[in-house]
């Protein structure tokens, strides 16, 4: 599946990843969203700096082609998919997503990206050869966490989001995923209708031209961009009225590779919010557990041979990452190791935290103790 990649897509990535800062090419897709400033919104609409009426522009088709490179994929993904109500009423009532898709095959069938009528018809793999998964794995990983991981590990969060009608996700340590901002519009279709969705993109390599900008991707989906570390970001919370997160996600995190993760992990632990990280191989996940354990924030044991059980959600005492079915299909090679790397290959949650809603009232005191 997805074994061949067209030259235009490969060229697109070579051009995209040459930038020192991420986000400076988002002007190429400006027709896909309206843009406002977080600073201007703070001055003009203190009650709700994100209030905005969305309007489409005339060059939408051109921007879609720039985003997805291939004309057929651009056309198919510009069409709203058919969303069928769940047959299981209880599952629908306690879900943040509009459709349950367990893997790439199901998604390709749902979006019309292959000639199959069912995901079970995977014998002819040539029908699943569209390279669009190279672009979409960022957004679909977020979707998978919301659809399959969060319900098992933090069902109270789902109930809280459904009650407020707003879902706030903090994506931390962002790099190339910000350059993929147009593909995050898929979350408009994948996340349950009726929910307002706010995505915060927070990272140290954000280009100054997009820093503190709000990208209004649809009438209910917006992306707020912030340059800096997550713990520094929280230091400005009182000035900008930043939303408390429902979920924190770090894609391709490399927790053991950067010293700046230490204060951020301590902050996440103090927030008490569900947090999930991804990495390219099991070895990196193992070191992520070690970092959290060393800081006293979670277990440092790692037992990948005992099954795909995410952080003892069933009370087994086993801590192991989950293989992400929406990982990137591109096989990466790293010098000095023989195992394969795939972006967003595994999902793990190394921080053991109390329930967020039960500790929300004491949040200010906890942040003060961390000098955030």
Describe it.
- The chain has 16 helices and nine strands.
- With 372 residues, it is of the alpha/beta class.
- It has one domain (26-40, 57-83, 100-114, 124-370).
- A nine-stranded mixed beta sheet has the order 1-4-5-3-2-6-7-9-8.
- Helix 7 (133-153) packs across helix 8.
- The longest helix is centred in the middle third of the chain and has 21 residues, at 133-153.
Task: Sum this structure up briefly.
By secondary structure, the chain is of the alpha/beta class.
Task: Please tag this protein with its features.
372 residues; alpha/beta; nine-stranded mixed beta sheet; 9 strands; disordered N terminus
Please bin the fraction of helical residues. Answer: 25-40%
Percentage of residues in DSSP E strands: 5-15%
Largest sheet: 9 strands, mixed
Distance between the termini: 46 Å
List strands and helices in order, with pairings:
Layout lengths: L6 H10 L17 E4 H7 L15 H9 L2 H7 L11 H5 L10 H7 L22 H21 L1 H10 L1 E7 L3 H4 L6 H5 L5 E8 L9 E4 L4 E7 L2 H5 L2 H4 L6 E4 L10 H11 L3 E5 L2 H13 L27 E2 L22 E3 L7 H4 L3 H7 L3
Parallel strand pairs: 2-3, 2-6, 3-5, 6-7
Antiparallel strand pairs: 1-4, 4-5, 7-9, 8-9
Protein name: Mitochondrial splicing suppressor 51-like C-terminal domain-containing protein
InterPro entries: Mss51-like_C
Pfam families: MSS51_C
